[in-house]
């Protein structure tokens, strides 16, 4: 599977539409029925035999994503039981209403008073009161009508990143539509094709509007779930910000020196843990709309399959095992694994500066300097910005006598089961537990006796021939 000669998708004739099967296959899943027939035939009552015919025909096609025929939904109501909703940590999904078979939604672009974590807030821009905006969820074949109200003081548009649609609905200001003026409400309408992980964001004054936080995830669920049907399906959008200390708003003009790195616009410890029950099937969907950077997201304790991108699902033969997934800016990746190892598992960007906060750079390098607190205090008078690096770890920055400017987050991370975790930024925790009855944060993992690293005893060192002299 990891054979690099086999990277070419589709060399084994596999098709992403293998993920779509008949209703019978869903019922006979070894994991047991999940959504079942009732789910499909309830809200999606009009699916019918015609679509089944289309699926069969499409399965013979090469592994490019297809546009699918629109399928009518319910005439009214505001629920959808055809899929298990995604979990957007620290976020939510966009409400909708069925109107004569069309799923109607409303996005409002507007300023948002946003807290990155305790100690740092700024006026950002987002949708419907949050950054990122609420996750849009739909089922392949759904007809969507999305109203976009511009509550900003400048023009905007919304682009549906990765969705295959009519050119005039693509949301590129000047190219496919006039920009939406402040106070105007635009109407987008399109049919979503094959399932996958996509995004939405402005395509007008992109640099400013995305740097201010305007973005969201867009998930399209399969009409007939089969194969790997997740019990837990998470959506995380990655972004990077420049928030100068003391500033009231992010600085969109920064090109490279970002000091706030976020998952769903939060930095650790404000990032919600991803909680799963032991043996749950877990999918994590990542989108990256950072101004400049790609993010290699590393998960501890597991090997996952990279199962697809915003271009669509990868054929099984191209789903390589990894522990780090590189999410280039302007793209999505989703990974899948069975949560068969209990514990608290770190998940973070592996660029070390991306798990730092505002004081992660521009500091005189004093690594190796020995001294005590009194020494540090005196040296700080001589070397402005001096911090005792390489001695206490970055996590202690928030703790000792370092003065911290108002509304700023230094390099400190957050509390852990064994003291402080000295990472902030793009860091979160996947918590896998046996015997959970719900998905509320279960607290810290209780390690079985004898399974935690500890100080070695002299007897142990002697017995194993470790010489410390
Ligand atoms: Cu990163």
The value of Rg in angstroms is 24 Å
What is the fold named in CATH at topology level?
Immunoglobulin-like
The helix/strand class is mainly beta
Tally the beta strands: 23
Relevant CATH superfamily: Cupredoxins -  blue copper proteins
- The CATH class turns out to be Mainly Beta
- Topology as a string of helices (H) and strands (E): HHHEEEEEEEEHEEEEEEEEEEEEHEEEH
Low-pLDDT windows of residues: 1-53
* Inertia-based shape: globular
Tell me about the biggest sheet?
7 strands, mixed
Gap from first CA to last CA: 47 Å
User: What are the bound molecules?
Assistant: copper (II) ion
Number of helices: 6
Number of domain modules: 1
Mean pLDDT, rounded to whole units? 85
Strand portion: 25-35%
- Share in helix: under 10%
The CATH architecture designation is Sandwich
Compile the SSE list and pairings:
Blueprint: H1 23-27, H2 36-43, H3 48-58, E1 97-99, E2 102-117, E3 120-127, E4 136-139, E5 143-150, E6 159-161, E7 185-191, E8 196-201, H4 206-211, E9 216-221, E10 232-241, E11 260-263, E12 274-277, E13 281-288, E14 295-299, E15 304-309, E16 312-313, E17 321-322, E18 324-327, E19 331-338, E20 343-349, H5 373-382, E21 414-416, E22 419-421, E23 427-433, H6 458-463
Parallel strand pairs: 2-5, 4-9, 10-13, 12-23
Antiparallel strand pairs: 1-2, 2-3, 5-7, 6-8, 8-9, 10-11, 13-19, 14-18, 14-20, 15-16, 15-17, 15-19, 20-23, 21-22
Bound molecules: copper (II) ion (CU).
């Amino acid at each position: 599977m990891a054979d690099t000669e086999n990277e070419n998708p589709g060399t084994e004739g596999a098709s992403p539409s293998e993920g779509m099967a008949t209703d019978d296959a869903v019922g006979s899943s070894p994991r047991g029925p999940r959504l079942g027939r009732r789910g499909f035939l309830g809200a999606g009552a009009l699916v019918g035999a015609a679509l089944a015919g289309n699926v069969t025909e499409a399965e013979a096609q090469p592994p490019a994503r297809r546009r699918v025929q629109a399928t009518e939904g319910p005439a009214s109501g505001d629920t959808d039981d055809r899929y298990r909703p995604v979990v957007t940590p620290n976020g939510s999904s966009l409400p909708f209403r069925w109107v004569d078979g069309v799923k109607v939604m409303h996005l409002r672009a507007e300023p948002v008073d946003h807290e990155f974590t305790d100690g740092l807030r700024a006026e950002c821009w987002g949708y419907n009161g949050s950054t990122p905006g609420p996750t849009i969820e739909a089922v392949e074949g759904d007809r969507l009508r999305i109203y976009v109200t511009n509550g900003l003081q400048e023009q905007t548009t919304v682009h549906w990143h990765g969705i295959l649609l009519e050119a005039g609905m693509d949301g590129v200001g000047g190219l496919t539509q006039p920009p939406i003026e402040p106070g105007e409400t635009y109407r987008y309408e399109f049919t979503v094709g094959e399932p996958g992980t996509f995004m939405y964001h402005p395509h007008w004054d992109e640099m400013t509007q995305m740097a201010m936080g305007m973005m969201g995830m867009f998930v399209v669920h399969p009409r007939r779930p089969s194969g790997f049907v997740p019990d837990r399906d998470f959506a995380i959008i990655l972004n990077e910000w420049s928030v100068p200390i003391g500033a009231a708003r992010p600085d969109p003009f920064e090109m490279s020196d970002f000091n706030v790195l976020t998952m769903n616009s939060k930095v650790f410890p404000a990032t919600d843990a991803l909680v799963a029950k032991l043996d749950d099937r877990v999918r994590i969907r990542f989108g990256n709309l950072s101004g400049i950077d790609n993010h290699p997201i590393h998960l501890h304790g597991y090997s996952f399959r990279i199962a697809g991108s915003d271009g669509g699902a990868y054929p099984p033969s191209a789903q390589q095992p990894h522990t780090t997934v590189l999410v280039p800016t302007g793209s999505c990746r989703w990974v899948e694994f069975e949560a068969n190892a209990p514990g608290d598992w770190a998940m973070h960007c592996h660029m070390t500066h991306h798990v730092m906060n505002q004081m992660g750079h521009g500091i005189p390098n004093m690594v190796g300097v020995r001294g005590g607190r009194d020494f540090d205090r005196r040296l700080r008078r001589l070397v402005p910005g001096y911090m005792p690096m390489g001695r206490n770890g970055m996590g202690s920055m928030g703790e000792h006598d370092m003065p911290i400017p108002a509304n700023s987050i230094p390099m400190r991370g957050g509390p852990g089961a064994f003291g402080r975790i000295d990472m902030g930024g793009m860091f979160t925790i996947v918590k896998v537990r046996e015997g959970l009855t719900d998905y509320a944060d279960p607290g810290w993992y209780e390690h079985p006796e004898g399974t935690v690293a500890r100080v070695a005893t002299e007897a142990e060192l002697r017995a194993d021939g470790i010489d410390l002299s």
